[in-house]
Specification:
Layout (H helix, E strand, L loop, with lengths): L3 H12 L2 H8 L3 H15 L4 E4 L2 E4 L1 H26 L6 E6 L1 H18 L4 E6 L2 H10 L4 E4 L8 E16 L18 E4 L5 H12 L9 E4 L3 H9 L5 E4 L4 H5 L3 E4 L7 E9 L5 H10 L1
Parallel strand pairs: 3-4, 3-5, 7-8
Antiparallel strand pairs: 1-2, 5-11, 6-9, 6-10, 6-11
GO molecular function: DNA-binding transcription factor activity; transcription cis-regulatory region binding
Protein name: LysR family transcriptional regulator
Keywords: DNA-binding, Transcription, Transcription regulation
Length: about 290
């Protein structure tokens, strides 16, 4: 589906260096330049420019790269599927954000495998920013995301709608009875790492009230959800996260919900894949099955 000139273009984008691209492709540097020149002439626009000595993509080049990356990945997946002579979805290669991967997806994924026992699985559990990078590079087929993402740049459907709650340890003592986000500023706030969807949602809520994380008296940043919950259970601070992640702790009384009137109560999880993929219909069907 891709010819040798578009392959050259993608290789130059990989290194942003004509010499290194030539070495990987085992052709001469003038040949690389010729291939890029052909594409620029064919499309009537410059794909690369120089800022000093640094090679960079033009606006048209970025669009061309994004489109070709999707085509290249679909081509690889199609070739692999044809060789297997089986249904196109024979291997789930995807990512999920931590709340989804650890607390929402496990039972659904288990049920899916009971009816599709021959499917192979590769799943990574990471934050939203990391998964978007992997999706863009073609390292994964799709991602289940809880955080914000540029919706104009991807295809997606709603996966589920989840409760977003503020919680504290059962014996946590507030400086003042909280009703609004502003009432929490004197508390120790425990948050996920930068790039986390759970954190991004909380920051967006603060922004709506003209508040910042730095307005809090103390902030503890913890990337691991289990460690974060343990800190909250031990009354070391308070946090906002999805109810799905603390269902057990709320049930057994280790944590309690704190009603904050100006905190967003619900948020959507999304099933996301590359825009323009020829496998979009399959991904939509798959999203409804998981």
């Amino acid at each position: 589906m891709l010819d040798f000139r578009t392959t050259t273009f993608l290789t130059v984008c990989k290194y942003m260096n004509f010499t290194q691209a030539a070495e990987e492709l085992r052709i001469t540097q003038p040949a690389v330049s010729q291939h890029i020149k052909y594409l620029e002439t064919n499309y009537g626009t410059k794909l690369f420019s120089y800022e000093g000595k640094k090679l960079q993509l033009t606006r048209a080049g970025k669009l061309f790269h994004k489109t070709l990356s999707t085509v290249a990945y679909d081509d690889q997946l199609l070739r692999k599927s044809m060789l297997q002579d089986d249904h196109l979805v024979s291997h789930l290669n995807f990512g999920a954000t931590r709340t989804i991967g650890e607390f929402v997806l496990p039972e659904r994924l288990a049920d899916f495998f009971k009816t599709h026992p021959s499917i192979q699985l590769t799943m990574i559990v990471e934050n939203t920013a990391y998964l978007l990078d992997k999706l863009q590079s073609g390292a994964i087929d799709f991602a289940l995301l809880e955080g914000y993402f540029p919706k104009t740049e991807y295809s997606f459907i709603q996966y589920s709608r989840e409760n977003y709650v503020f919680v504290a340890g059962q014996n946590y003592s507030f400086k003042k009875t909280p009703h609004l986000l502003e009432d929490l500023l004197n508390e120790t706030l425990i948050i996920r790492e930068s790039g986390s969807g759970t954190r991004a949602i909380f920051e967006k809520n603060l922004e709506k009230q003209n508040l910042l994380l730095n307005d809090f008296k103390q902030i503890l940043e913890i990337g691991d959800i289990s460690v974060l919950k343990n800190f909250v259970k031990n009354n070391l601070g308070v946090t906002a996260l999805y109810e799905a992640a603390v269902t057990e702790e709320l049930k057994n009384g280790q944590l309690k919900k704190i009603v904050i009137d100006d905190l967003q109560k619900m948020h959507d999880f999304y099933f996301v894949w590359r825009k323009g993929s020829v496998f979009s219909d399959i991904y939509r069907t798959l999203a409804q099955s998981l």
